[in-house]
Design brief:
three-stranded antiparallel beta sheet; 19% helix; 7 strands; elongated
Length: 119
């Protein structure tokens, strides 16, 4: 019965390399956390009508109905609209023409992103 010394030395080498890389990351200040980032979603979010008519208004309701930050982006990622909403209704400006948009809503520490279709 022969022992496979190469395999044992290989495992020791890999362990030593991984340990030295971890120490190097900590000493350089480039520590990355393995913890997942928890993003709170907005409870009871409802956006309607969707699709909406050009120059129409959309209703954004949530469970708490507090002040919301609303941003609308086109499909290229350009911000078209950024506003604070104290009511449930948002009147779309003329800059939001027919097309597909991404609407991002923030309320307190929670946020949500949805697709918005304008006819």
């Amino acid at each position: 019965m022969t022992k496979n010394y190469f395999y044992n030395y290989f495992l020791i080498g890999v362990f030593a390399l991984m340990t030295s890389l971890s120490v190097a990351q900590v000493s350089s200040g480039a520590v990355s956390s393995n913890k997942a980032t928890v993003v709170k979603t907005i409870e009871g979010l409802s956006i309607y009508p969707n699709p909406v008519q050009t120059n129409g208004k959309i209703t954004i309701e949530t469970k708490t109905n507090e002040t919301k930050e609303v941003e609308i982006y086109n499909v290229m990622g350009k911000k078209i609209l950024a506003t604070q909403l104290n009511t449930k209704e948002l009147v779309l400006p003329s800059s939001v023409t027919a097309g597909i948009y991404i609407i991002k809503i923030k309320e307190n520490n929670a946020s949500a992103t949805r697709k918005l279709i304008v006819k």
